[in-house]
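Thread: quick sanity check before group meeting

JM: Hey all, I'm pulling together slides for Thursday and realized we never actually wrote out the predicted structure for the chain we discussed last week. Dropping the sequence here so it's in one place. If anyone has concerns about the input, flag it before I start.
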Amino acid sequence: MKVDLFDFELPPERIALRPAVPRDAARMLVLDGDSTSDRIVRDLPLCLRAGDMLVFNDTRVIPAQLDGRRGDAAIGATLHKREGPRRWRAFVRNGRRLCGGDAITFGGGVVAHALDRAEDGSWALEFAGDEPVELLLGRAGRMPLPPYIAARRTPDERDADDYQTMFANEPGAVAAPTAALHFTPELMTALAKAGVEQATLTLHVGAGTFLPVKGDDTVEHRMHAEWGRIDPATAERLNAVRDRGGRIVAVGTTSLRLLESAASEDGRIQPFEGDTAIFITPGYRFRGVDGLMTNFHLPRSTLFMLVSALMGLDRMQAAYAHAIANEYRFYSYGDSSLLLP
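JM (edit): ok, ran it. Output follows.
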C-alpha cells in the first residue's frame, strides 16, 4: 500500500509532553464495532466484559541513551537490541567518525568498543569490564525519551518514573510500552472486580519503533527485530480465555505484535521465545487478539498502519480526525484509545 494513505495533519500542540495525573485520568476514545464514544481510562471496566483478558508487556525501560567521545569526536549512542551479555546494537550519532575496534568513553568511566556497522547504519558495541552492563548504564545512561518529546524539552528526574509502567519488571526495553502507562493499582482493582483478567508477556521494545517509513510503499519497509517471550503457562491461560468465550485485548502494540507472532493459523497462542519482526498492515488477518488498547500514533508510522489493519483505514482516519478536533493528546505521554473490531 502507498505510505501516503496513512498520512494526516497533526498540530504540534496536540503532542503531550507530560502524562496525565493521575495516570488513569487520561482520556480514552472507544471504538466498539461501529460506535464511537469519548471516555476516560478509568472507565475501562465499563467498556470490557467479565471474562475478557488484558495482556500487558512487563518489559522495563533501561537508561539506553549515552553520550561519549572517541578521541576528539563527540559520539552519541542509543542502544536498541541486546545481542549478547555485553554486546548491544546501537544507533550512533556521528557514527561516521567510528571505525571497527574504536573505543568510546562514556560518563562514569564506562567504555565500549565499536565492533561492526550494519547495513542500516547501526553499530555493535561491546562494553568493557566485568560489571554487569545494567550497572554501567545506570552510571552513564539516561532515559531514552522519544525524539518528539526530547526535541521539545530536556528529560528530567520525573521521566524516570513517568516513562515506566507499573508492570515493568524485565529490564531490556529502550522505549516504554506506553499504552500501559495509564494503569494504576486502583484501576487494576476495579478491573478485577469487574471480572477482567490479566496476563503479562515480555517484548523488549527497540528504538526501531521510532524509525520512519522511508519508502513510498509499505512493501519496501523492513522492521527491526525485537526479542520477546510468552511462557507456556501464559499461553495456556490465554487459550483458556478464548475457549470460555472471552476476548484477548492487548494493552499496547508491543503486546499485540508478540501475540500475533505466537499465534498459529487456528488462533491458538503458542509459547514463544525469540525475535519477531512482524509488520502488520491492512489486509492482515488477526489470529491472536480480539482488541487493542493503544495511544495515538504518528502519521505514516508502522503503528498507525497496524491500528488501520485492525479497524480499517477509513475508520482510523476518521477516529484520528475526531481526536484532533476534540483536543486529545497524542503519542507516548498522550491519551488512549480502545479498539474493539
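AS: nice. The domain at 3-61+160-340 is CATH 3.40.1780.10 (QueA-like). The chain has nine helices and 17 strands.
JM: adding both to the slides.
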